[in-house]
Design goal:
Helix content: 55-70%
Shape: globular
Radius of gyration: 25 Å
Largest sheet: 3 strands, antiparallel
Number of strands: 3
């Protein structure tokens, strides 16, 4: 068997394998900060109330599954593997649907066409204001579409399709409109049914019809900023304390928050003294310009900016590293306020828990820990840190937190509001 015949025989398997490898490498080596930013903008909880809240609106199951998957994005390797799996599933479902709609279509045509949906989903994944909800909704609708198309009796298919459209609309949201294509002859009927579901849901959910048509958790545009690519990447690196990488990647930063992070990286890598750090981060009141500073301390203003979700987390990390507890706390709260759809953030709650322990607010720390204990990736940290709430003297075993507490007790607590 020669080379051409092998390629011809295993053409689809080769295409799918290349898709998986390219997707995995793309997210792991080029844009790992986008899924990481998505993870820090939510707090997925394993409890019945969280599931019930999601199921109470159209598209709730797609949102629930999307957020469940997004929690794995805390690790860039997991994020790359997840996206590879999702896009391969999208390609396989597209290929099956093409064969069902066009049985005589040749593989040389159907395989390239089947790559279009995963490419579209890939593009959507690159947009920070598009969560994973529409991607999961599309996959669920395609799966059900394959099942419906396998029913050959047209009348039976139509009856089942009418039922499925109503159910899938509530589970996946407006993406379920694609199901009307499963019965071309009866599109006017199925489209009317879908429109009725759409309009009817606006009367039983606390969302306007415009939002329901767009998808309740399909698009976060028009809300507070998630941050620029520059801010997202910088935030990921300082979270990992990759100070040298911060200095290498951001020679001429645009974002004020990233400029502050570069200053901190220079200090943490030993290229700048503490006095130089303070001279660059703190400016006199006379230099206070029209761009509002976020915090003040006595007669000085910190040139730290909270212009987006990512920049707020950058400020929180910077303040944490410098033991500026009040500023770190304020920035963490601000970061959660930037999150669309009123979500909370596991990362922000973790920071606030540490601050509560440092400042002696143990009851509040226990409240945050009880929430984080219902997650997957923060649960182990909760078990480790809870001992500090039960026995505050154990903070002596944590040098960084001990130093932060000493700094907090010695420093006057200025708080700009």
């Amino acid at each position: 068997m020669n080379k051409n015949s092998i390629i011809s025989k295993y053409w689809e398997q080769i295409a799918v394998s290349l898709l998986a490898i390219i997707v995995c490498c793309f997210w792991l080596f080029f844009y790992p900060f986008i899924p990481v930013a998505r993870e820090m903008s939510q707090l997925f909880l394993w409890n019945g109330d969280y599931l019930t809240e999601r199921l109470s609106v159209p598209g709730g199951i797609a949102q629930y599954l999307g957020e469940c998957i997004t929690q794995f994005f805390i690790n860039p390797v997991y994020a790359a593997l997840v996206y590879a799996i999702l896009f391969v599933v999208a390609q396989q479902l597209s290929s099956k649907l093409l064969r069902q709609f066009f049985p005589t279509l040749k593989s040389k045509v159907s395989i390239p066409l089947s790559l279009l949906p995963p490419i579209l989903l890939w593009y959507m994944a690159m947009l920070p204001h598009i969560p994973l909800t529409p991607t999961i909704a599309a996959l669920l609708v395609m799966m059900i579409g394959c099942v419906v198309m396998s029913i050959h009796a047209k009348r039976t298919r139509l009856i089942i399709l009418c039922f499925v459209i109503a159910v899938m609309y509530w589970l996946t949201g407006p993406m379920s409109i694609l199901l009307v294509l499963c019965s071309i002859r009866w599109i006017p009927l199925t489209a009317t049914l879908f429109a009725s579901c759409l309009i009817g849901s606006s009367y039983i959910t606390p969302y306007p019809l415009e939002q329901i048509i767009k998808g309740i958790d399909y698009d976060w545009s028009g809300v507070k900023e998630m941050g620029t690519y520059e801010e997202m990447e910088c935030d990921m690196l300082i979270r990992q304390q990759e100070w040298i990488q911060v200095l290498r990647k951001f020679k001429h930063p645009v974002s004020p928050a990233v400029r502050s992070a570069v200053i901190l990286a220079s200090y943490q890598s030993g290229q700048m003294s503490y006095q130089e750090l303070m001279s660059k981060l703190v400016v006199p009141v006379s230099m206070f310009d029209s761009e509002p500073s976020v915090f003040c301390m006595g007669e000085n203003h910190f040139t730290l900016y909270l212009g987006s979700l990512s920049s707020a987390f950058i400020v929180s990390e910077l303040a944490t590293q410098l033991s500026w507890t009040a500023i770190s706390q304020r920035a963490a709260f601000e970061a959660m306020e930037y999150i669309p759809n009123a979500n909370k953030s596991g990362r922000a709650l973790k920071t606030l828990t540490e601050i509560c322990i440092i400042t002696g607010q143990y009851a509040l720390a226990e409240k945050y820990l009880s929430i984080l204990d219902q997650t997957i990736f923060y649960r182990r940290w909760v078990k480790k840190i809870r001992s500090l709430v039960d026995n505050p003297k154990l903070i002596e075993q944590y040098p960084f937190m001990k130093a932060s507490r000493e700094s907090y007790l010695k420093t006057k607590d200025y708080f700009f509001i």
